[in-house]
Recover the amino acids of this structure.
């Protein structure tokens, strides 16, 4: 009873500051509403021990309580994330500097990186197919005029990248982190390139190879289960889409140096990746980054754009073009969230309840973080530093033809 009295006082105090479409239901049926408007989110607390998650909430503690089954949460994922952010912002403790320090001590060995990639991607191909577009493109789409559906926007993203690197017939293209092969398939079919796609995910590699065979492109595309540090040879074009977030901030100079060593002298490389908006490269506030590190992307790290540009230069690359696609990724993640919820019944048959809950809030959380400028997405076109980029047209017009 004492705990419930404290919760009642806590809810009354919160209502004086905020109006949230939130209801908290206790194990005995008692309810606390935080707005006169109908609740869009309901948190059910099954026993007294679970009340601790509400006293000083963070996105990490609330997310952990939900995915571990300590509390139950009902509502649309977008509403759940919105309410959770308000609670964490007004009642939480902000960013964990200790977690930032520990994250940067991760060695990012070949073995550790492969384990992290397989944890995230080797759920099952059917799981991802249930909420991605038909091409299974798992990265930021490009909404050229804002009216495109997700599948169209993903195709436009791939074409946008291949035009930016001015890909030409017969050129050798290396795609680092090739996913299920959508980019190399497009590069071979419509641009006439000879492609190597590498991934550390066995599931991705298997399906990508199947797709290459179905397209009859075995002579133009090779899919490898390979670490980028083990690639040999030289390539006229290199792309990396949604991969460098796994490298680690402290390892970025070595990563870009390796990319540089694989690039022909007159070659072009495109890095498409998520960045933090914290200039000190720290995790996103209110525990969101901590939740992702534990449950979604083990050992992932986001760098600020300034750090990315600096480490590219340290790796021997010259930045030639930068484009911010933050709002494009907010819309992409929102579309994924809608797809996930629309196919929730099927997705529950493809994985366990814990992983279902992780992804239920993760996708909507990413949409919120991109929409509110906590994280961003940049496409950066580079060439070898000190080289005359004479092969690139004088203006950016060629990217849009």
């Amino acid at each position: 009873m004492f705990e419930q009295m404290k919760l009642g006082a806590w809810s009354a105090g919160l209502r004086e500051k905020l109006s949230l479409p939130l209801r908290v239901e206790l194990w005995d049926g008692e309810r606390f509403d935080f707005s006169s408007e109908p609740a869009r989110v309901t948190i059910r607390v099954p026993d007294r021990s679970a009340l601790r998650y509400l006293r000083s909430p963070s996105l990490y503690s609330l997310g952990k309580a939900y995915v571990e089954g300590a509390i139950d949460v009902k509502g649309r994922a977008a509403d759940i994330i919105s309410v959770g952010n308000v609670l964490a912002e007004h009642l939480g403790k902000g960013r964990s500097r200790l977690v930032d320090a520990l994250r940067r001590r991760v060695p990012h060995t070949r073995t550790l990186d492969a384990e992290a990639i397989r944890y995230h991607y080797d759920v099952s191909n059917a799981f991802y197919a249930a909420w991605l577009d038909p091409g299974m493109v798992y990265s930021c789409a490009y909404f050229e005029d804002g009216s495109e559906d997700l599948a169209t926007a993903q195709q436009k993203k791939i074409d946008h990248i291949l035009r930016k690197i001015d890909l030409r017939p017969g050129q050798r293209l290396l795609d680092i982190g090739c996913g299920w092969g959508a980019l190399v398939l497009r590069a071979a079919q419509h641009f006439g390139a000879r492609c190597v796609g590498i991934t550390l995910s066995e599931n991705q590699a298997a399906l990508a190879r199947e797709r290459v065979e179905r397209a009859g492109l075995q002579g133009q595309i090779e899919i490898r289960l390979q670490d980028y540090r083990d690639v040999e040879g030289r390539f006229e074009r290199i792309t990396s889409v949604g991969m460098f977030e796994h490298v680690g901030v402290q390892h970025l100079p070595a990563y870009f140096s390796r990319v540089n060593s694989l690039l022909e002298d007159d070659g072009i490389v495109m890095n498409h990746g998520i960045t933090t908006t914290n200039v000190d490269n720290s995790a996103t506030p209110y525990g969101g980054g901590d939740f992702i590190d534990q449950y979604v992307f083990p050992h992932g790290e986001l760098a600020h754009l300034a750090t990315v540009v600096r480490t590219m230069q340290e790796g021997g690359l010259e930045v030639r073009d930068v484009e911010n696609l933050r709002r494009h990724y907010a819309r992409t993640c929102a579309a994924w969230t809608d797809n996930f919820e629309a196919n929730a019944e099927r997705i529950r048959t493809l994985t366990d309840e814990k992983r279902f809950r992780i992804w239920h809030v993760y996708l909507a959380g990413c949409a919120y973080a991109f929409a509110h400028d906590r994280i961003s997405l940049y496409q950066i076109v580079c060439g070898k530093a000190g080289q005359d980029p004479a092969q690139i047209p004088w203006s950016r017009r060629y990217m849009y033809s």
Summary: The longest helix spans residues 353-371. The chain has a mean pLDDT of 90. The first strand starts at residue 22 and ends at 25. The domain at 2-91 is CATH 3.30.1050.10 (Nonspecific Lipid-transfer Protein; Chain A).
